[in-house]
């Protein structure tokens, strides 16, 4: 609710502070006193555009500041927390228009954009003077009205949980189908590459080992010849090395006792002779393993040729790299199968969730349809009581093929102001005054079910009087028991029901200028003001008595 509105340097207002209370706040005053100027200043807080023409003094900035009591307002709390604007205590919104025309907005002293201000304003105040942009003509609000009266809150919460899961499954399904389509484009080629590698059936490090083996087999004869020559030189031939060393060892052995060094050298020479003899024997034994095998060479060469072709195709140089590519191809091919399996599982889940969502949506639709007649009857009855006896509202529940976040329906309010039988969307055919009274009738019905912001009615009583004005006052009073209502009125029947009566007036200044001011009326002042609304500037005793009775009876 609005607690206080402060306005400085706006139009004909120098500076005023207006305090509001819970319940029904009535604003009265003579025509031209500045009542609508108050609403114009308030509209700046709600995000309206402004320019320097609003400045009373061109050399000073205009400041409009409004404090709100928002305790227990969950929707507002959630918005402020999400925007990191929440602070303990009251909510304070401020708008400044500099002499240069630059405008700034603040929420709890934090600079914000005009869009943020508008988003918050919708939650705080519903100002019924610009209905082309307000809720009554919006499908979402019309649906909320029907759902509030139909008691659909729990049903919609359950449906939205199912719908959320359905949307998540569909999102995942689209992603997987896109992945599968991409996989499918490459699947045949990947399968060909994989089959080629699988057919070769390479083992870890195999091609490198085969290359070494091929080199060995290709040089087997030369190696065998070299081994034979080495063995011959060591242990065969005319003067074998081993035999020569044995003879030398025998000569030195005879003198080893004469000198310590000779003994050591003789031992070393004998060890060398023995080592060379072992080497010769091993070389002779190794020579038996080096036999040329043309058939094996052909087999290796053929396998290496295939391997080297794959090296070139995949731009790699080792067997292990080919095996990594094979594993990656296997993973991709398995992924296609796995993705298809996931898609089938998700389609089954989607089918179940869709069936459940449709079932829940049908229950919501049924509840909405059951509320159509009672809502139309209640609103039409109230329209007649507020001076619109020929006006009719028609509520259409249009079931659509696709689900939305609130079920399967499009809710639309149609309006016929003159019993023409031609119903049109409210936003197209209703006048400002008609919309104000229509909104009053509708919101008075849903006030107990929906968290409404402060309602402001700017001269909702235009064109009505007598019993109709009385009924508007009754509805406003009822509505104000649940939410704060602020109304500018010229009707005594409405003003008499105020919980808080504010009077707007013009005050001449010493410099011959005119200043708008506002004061809160005490009971006696209220009686006089209402008597003047009944009987003119100098009300009769009867008018004073009628005013007193109206206030006391209301």
How is this fold's topology laid out?
Elements: E1 2-10, E2 13-19, E3 24-29, H1 35-45, E4 62-68, H2 74-82, E5 91-97, E6 103-107, E7 110-112, H3 114-124, E8 125-128, H4 139-150, H5 153-200, H6 206-218, H7 220-235, H8 241-253, H9 260-287, H10 294-314, H11 319-385, E9 392-404, E10 407-416, E11 424-425, H12 426-429, H13 432-446, E12 454-458, H14 466-480, E13 485-488, H15 492-495, E14 500-508, E15 514-520, H16 523-535, H17 541-553
Parallel strand pairs: 3-13, 3-14, 8-12, 12-13
Antiparallel strand pairs: 1-2, 1-4, 4-5, 5-6, 6-7, 9-10, 10-11, 14-15
Function: May be involved in recombinational repair of damaged DNA.
GO biological process, one term: DNA repair
Keywords: ATP-binding, Coiled coil, DNA damage, DNA repair, Nucleotide-binding
Structure overview:
The protein is an alpha/beta fold and 554 residues long. Among the domains are: 177-339, no CATH class; 522-554, no CATH class. The chain is 56% helix and 18% strand. It has helices at residues 35-45, 74-82, 114-124, 139-150, 153-200, 206-218, 220-235, 241-253, 260-287, 294-314, 319-385, 426-429, 432-446, 466-480, 492-495, 523-535, 541-553, and strands at residues 2-10, 13-19, 24-29, 62-68, 91-97, 103-107, 110-112, 125-128, 392-404, 407-416, 424-425, 454-458, 485-488, 500-508, 514-520. A 6-stranded antiparallel beta sheet has the order 2-1-4-5-6-7, with helices on one face. Strands 8-12-13-3-14-15 form a 6-stranded mixed beta sheet. Strand 12 (454-458), helix 14 (466-480) and strand 13 form a beta-alpha-beta unit. Helix 4 crosses helix 11, helix 5 packs antiparallel against helix 11 and helix 8 (241-253) packs antiparallel against helix 9. The longest helix has 67 residues, at 319-385. The two termini are 23 Å apart. The relative contact order is 0.13. The model is unreliable at 129-134 (pLDDT under 50).
